[in-house]
Design brief:
Elements: E1 2-4, E2 7-9, E3 22-36, E4 39-52, E5 65-76, E6 79-86, E7 94-100, E8 115-120, E9 125-132
Antiparallel strand pairs: 1-2, 3-4, 4-5, 5-6, 6-9, 7-8
Length: 134
């Protein structure tokens, strides 16, 4: 049993806006690759993959999503520089999907037919990080 919205929901019942599957797998490596002026040089990299199934009760064009993220960096002694790319292949994902009746035109009566509404997930994004270790 789960408590939601002031009521009890029996185990195994699909919640309307929550996907049945949400998973994330990440892998990273950090290794010394040499030395420069007596300072150790370390290289690092990482790859992450997230998968989410479509919400169970959204019926019109709902689909699962896949996101790949990656990072690479180098550290020489106390100085590090990293590049991170989120949504590596720039897949156009929907962050959240809902179905409900709505109308954005005040002069026209609202339809009672459910329409798909969604928020878009972030597009491909690049981030750099400069780090000083003490």
């Amino acid at each position: 049993m789960t408590e939601a919205l002031g009521g009890r929901i029996p185990a195994g019942v699909a919640l309307p806006t929550l996907p049945a599957l949400v998973t994330r797998l990440d892998a990273a490596i950090d290794a010394p690759v040499g030395a420069y002026l007596g300072q150790t040089i370390r290289a690092r990299g990482g790859l992450g993959m997230g998968v989410r199934s479509a919400p169970p009760l959204v019926t019109t064009t709902a689909y699962p999503s896949l996101v790949l993220d990656t990072t690479a960096g180098i550290r020489i002694g106390p100085v590090g520089l990293d590049l991170t790319v989120r949504n590596l292949v720039d897949i156009r994902n929907r962050d959240a999907q809902f179905e409900y009746a709505s109308s954005f035109t005040p002069a026209i009566p609202a339809s009672q037919t459910p329409a798909l509404h969604y928020t878009m997930a972030p597009r491909r994004s690049f981030f750099t990080t400069f780090t000083l270790y003490t």
